């Protein structure tokens, strides 16, 4: 029985080595998922874990030879807010700096914190929709029954493909769990 003890020890060492390699591989895979997730989100035009580049709009020339219809949409997901754009659609020339406003009302009797997530239609248009200022860059805390107007300043890149005549900008506000009214 004493002779079999070293055999168990050697088998245990091999098993420990294998499990260590598997644990390291799992850690490396989890670490690699963050930039992969960010690239998928950027490609689809949805929010990502990486901070948004503010002021990403370049100094461009206005293309007055064409106009693009911007349709605005607003939604909430399990959030006690009324949220709407002040205008539903507008015409813009690519390259022109444009400002729009959304209105949000907290209908709960206590402060609530939310985060807006933008999406674009068609999805490829998100790459050409450059936000300079947006409420979606930061979490928003609204006091009980507070009404707030929030601007979005943007430029449609003149490199937008000519076959894209309409861009739908949609925001969905989600409640930030555990934040309540803390900003």
Explain this structure to me?
With 183 residues, this protein is of the alpha+beta class. The chain has one helix and nine strands; from the N terminus they run H-E-E-E-E-E-E-E-E-E. It has one helix at residues 4-44; strands at 68-77, 81-85, 89-92, 98-106, 112-121, 129-134, 140-142, 147-156, 166-175. The strands form two sheets. The protein has a five-stranded mixed β-sheet, with no helix packed on it. A four-stranded antiparallel β-sheet has the order 2-4-8-6, with no helix packed on it.
Key traits:
single chain, 1 helix, alpha+beta, four-stranded antiparallel sheet, five-stranded mixed sheet, flat, about 180 residues
Helix/strand/pairing category: alpha+beta
Contiguous uncertain segments of 5+ residues? 48-52
Overall average pLDDT: 85
Could you spell the SSE succession in H and E letters?
Answer: HEEEEEEEEE
Q: Which term fits the overall shape?
A: flat
Name the strands of the widest sheet in spatial order.
3-1-9-5-7
User: From the alpha-carbon coordinates, what is the Rg to the nearest angstrom?
Assistant: 24 Å
What summary fits the major beta sheet?
5 strands, mixed
Distance between the termini: 66 Å
Secondary structure: helix percent: 10-25%
Number of E-state strands: 9
What is the fold's blueprint, element by element?
Blueprint: H1 4-44, E1 68-77, E2 81-85, E3 89-92, E4 98-106, E5 112-121, E6 129-134, E7 140-142, E8 147-156, E9 166-175
Parallel strand pairs: 1-9
Antiparallel strand pairs: 1-3, 2-4, 4-8, 5-7, 5-9, 6-8
